[in-house]
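Quick one: examine this chain and its backbone structure tokens and tell me how the chain folds. Here goes:
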Amino acid sequence: MRRLLPLLAFLAAAPALAAPVEVTRFHTPDTIAILGKGAVFVTGAPGTDPASLENRVWLDAVARELAAQGWGFATAGAADRVIEVRVERQTLRRDRQRGPVSVGVGGSTGGWHSGVGLGVGFDLGGRPKDLVATRLSVVIRDRLTGRALWEGRAENTEKAGGKLASAEPAARRMAHALFAGFPGTSGATITVK
């Protein structure tokens, strides 16, 4: 037991491990040939509010990753490509599978002895944590034609209320995963830890 104490202390002090991010990207050889690395304008996808503070976190995270890939930035009317960003977040409720109290009864008869036993169990773990499921979708379009040249999505699920589920760290991790190895293999889903 003494050998396990340092390991248990380390595990208790270690930060929560992030759930992996699943990434899928789509493109064709001809769209990649014309994609280039020109100037881009990053905005929310149609139907989103690019001025909202939460969306701004995601737009900034995508812009940082594009800058790391060597892209420049321009105004909406001067950019070569328009980057459309959409974020969908949903809290998934996890219901308790059984009640917090369980009762068991057992008995035996025969021979010289007979007996009845009663056991009561209490679940002290509380109810399961809710989860936050997030999907980050990005489309790179040609500004003049509106043609989609590259599409990608990153999906992740974290425990609700955890540091890794909040918008800013989630945006950084998911944008980084989405553009890792850009442009990626079309149609393949990869897991990024």
Observations:
- The beta strands are 21-26, 39-44, 72-73, 81-92, 101-108, 115-122, 131-142, 148-159, 189-192.
